[in-house]
Amino acid sequence: MSRINTNVPAIKALNRLVRNQDDLGVRLERLSTGLRINRGRDDPAGLIVSERLRSEMRSLQQAIENSSRAANVVTTAEGALNETSALLLDLQELVIQTANEGGLSDAEVEANQLQIDSILNSIDRISNTTRFAGRKLLDGSQSYNISALPTAAITGASLFSVLLPQGQTRTVDIKVTQSALTAQVALVGLNASGTSTLSASTVEIRGSLGSQVLSFASGATLADVRTAINSLTAGTGVSAVVSAAGVTGVASALLLNSTTLGADAFVSVEPLGGNFVAKNEFQSLRDTGRDAKVIIDGQVGSARGLFATVRSNGIDAKFTMTQVFAQTLSSASFEVTGGGSIFQVGPEVKSSGQLRVGFTSTSTGYLGNPSTGRLFSLRSGQGNDLGTKNFSTAQSIVTEAIDQIASYRGRLGAVYKNQIQPSIDSQSITLENVTASESLIRDADIAEEVSALTRVQVLVQGTQSALQIANSLPNLVLSLLGG
What we know:
alpha+beta
């Protein structure tokens, strides 16, 4: 080195020292933060992918939290329903106990009525006070709002879940494509002896409510048989009429019909002795009813008696049809105008990531049904209190209420078990995999970084020594001047 104005070796050593020191700073930053990517220049493509994965992670974490909150809401409601169910069982016991009129005094009946009033008050209190985070759950405020039902066709609607566009209404159409039928057994007005009246005979009439054995004296007419059967309708579920319609070539016929519709209804006639009315050769001595076929919102629903249900992603509901509507090929509609609760259980804010639940009321004014009666009618002074002695009707109302609460609990349980919990489980696994992918891209490998740090430290120290030597080279020129 004989030039002193420009020390090229020192410049080279300085540049290398700066690079090594920058690399040392990067290694120290990665070790101190635990991240391989701390800024865009570290890995531009990796940063973009990492940020997207981080967004997914945060969405999944919040969705899991939302699902856990939804589970808490459902569990709170189901716990309250459990208490209501226990009260209804006590109520049923009191009704059956009081029906034992011959074994109870008036004072005991009055005491039972006081208990019933207390139970009904407790059911209403549970309905009005069950809440989560200040929001009532079972008072009907979280149920779906519907326009006036077409009562000539639909007397009740229980909407458990409805896909309702935000701020919009939805029309629900119900169409009967196959009418429901009662069970019917037709018997012609001639007995085995060919006379128009009966000889002495005994017959058993069976229906969905029970069976009764009837005995007829010789000379009884079809009208006499009809009157006898109708007097026991409450115990058999079978009514009778005398008619010539539908029986070809016969002056009169005895038509035995079930009092209810659907496949659960049946009529059975079993002659036990004597010569009862001869049967029409085209009819059986036993017949069952037929359920209606319904289409709800364009989807095939199911019908059982007067109840029609549909369960799909768009609507989960149960409707109570009138007997006339169920037996007629016709349609009806109403509008859902809002209401219900929406739980965001998915990472994306759209219908596929949302769970919709309508928390219907469980008050005594709602439990029961319009045809049989509502639960509040068992209160003192109402139409079915114990003083009226309408024990059969009262039991039917309580049984319907028990079934409603059981169905409600079952649906909430299904929401928890089959929708919320699987959502939490699946999203937890997804979060685990996404986190692993993000970590692979963004997190620093500590072992690798420590190894690189050691290397860079040695290089920095070596470069500093080289720079020191390069800076001393111009001093060699002095040896030339001294020579």
